[in-house]
Design a protein that fits this description.
Layout lengths: L1 E3 L11 E6 L2 E6 L34 E2 L5 E8 L2 E8 L6 E5 L10 E4 L5 E8 L4 E11 L2 E12 L5 E4 L9 E6 L3 E8 L6 E7 L1 E7 L6 E8 L2 E8 L5 E6 L7 E6 L5 E6 L8 E6 L6 E2 L10 E7 L12 E7 L2 E7 L7 E3 L11 E2 L4 E6 L7 E6 L9 H9 L81 E2 L3
Parallel strand pairs: 3-11, 23-31
Antiparallel strand pairs: 1-11, 2-3, 4-5, 5-6, 6-7, 8-9, 9-10, 10-11, 12-13, 13-14, 14-15, 16-17, 17-18, 18-19, 20-21, 21-22, 24-25, 25-26, 26-27, 28-29, 29-30
Amino acid sequence: MCESGDSPGHRGSGKTSVVAGGDRMMTASASPGVRPRRSGGSSSPTPEAPSPPPPPAATPSPCVLAADGSYAARLTLRGGARHAERWTLDGPEPYAVPLPTDRPEEPGTEVLPLTDGRVLVHRVEPAAPGARHLFSLLYPTGPGTGELALGSVECADPGTVLRLLPPSPAGTRAYALAAGPDSTAVWLIAGGDFGPEHLAEVPGHCSGGVWLDTTGRMLALDRTRNGRTKTVVVDLERGGEMSPLLQIAEDSDDRLLLADADSGLLLIRSDAPSPGRERLGWGVLGSTLPVRFPQCLRVEGCTVTPFAIQPGQILTPEACAVALRVDGAGGSWLGLWRPAERRLEHVPAPEGWLPGTGRWTREGELHLPCATPAAPCSVARLTAPVARPAPPVAEASQRRNSSSSAEGGEGPAHDPGSEAREGGGAPPETAAPAPRPVPLQQAPLGVKRPPEAPRQPPREGESEPSSTGLLRAARHVVLAAAVTDAR
């Protein structure tokens, strides 16, 4: 169970005090009141055998980008002390601003930049029997650092892990997930009127956290119950109303890793095609085409993790460039891939890259934050291999809105052409940008699908596409989840 302490403007009866000193102003809560929140009950899930658990709060990401890419934040060591640092990335040259406070930060502190330039800091204080989580906003004030205390959340259950969710598309709002053994709470930390605010309680142990829209309303979580993990959607504007999203097979573990609201492209990790062995796949929101598990995304002896999708490719998910982090015995490097291609381009990581951090521009340029002794704040820019011409808008609309069954959608979503080796082949010629189509909600419905390519036999060890492994509708969000190994 997690409880919220008072913060400035909180509904509770606690008073706040403001202490000014020099160029620094700090708001702290006094006489904290407590609003208890009880967890929803459910049977305790059994441990997940096929997949490792998500990283705990004690190992935050080395660098976090704001929702629009204008800022980044990380913890850095300077003078033997650890403190937060904000990077400004939307100017002609990136630059860093240190945000030291009265005390050094602990290794497990999380930081998250907001689009207004402030940096949210999540600190953890041990408290028997659980932990107390403190939240503050840091911002530069001339030579010093301003700090605005937002309040705290106390988790009495020692088995509850509280961590910040990825930056919200809303920009100035920040959320946290308090995952316990039996239930998971979603908290609004920054951007509300009353400090930390409890928004939703989801039965089961949840991990992940992917935003499905551009407003920060629809949140996808990977929920574990009865030993199996499936993705659900939580509507934060309807009191945490929950809907199933991803279920490929009854006995599979299915997780959502990334989503792009413009194209509807989803990156998925599941063991459905190879029981006991997870694989990367891709699908499209609102489509009845099956989830695909490309052979090129299987790199022997390595872990492949997507971290950025190219935005702005409306209704053309096959044309989206995807950046992946590849971790192997020799270190970490980059993978560049598009769903329309049958190859994964392996690219050496730039010197000082903060692994797993980066963002695409709409034009297909990948920006990677880097830190070296010579350039402690820099951005490396890479251009993705040129995509083949995107499918016509009408064809994309048919794919996203066809009313035919998933069994009829097992063919390739895009003509793959000739097979290319992983990491090989020269990039084709630059394709002219496709015209911007109408939003998905306005696309025509009920159009007839063009003839499908002949079905290919399954690869050795792979399962046949299943018409029963369909995703249930999460409000207007529907995804076909039959399994195929094409592309």
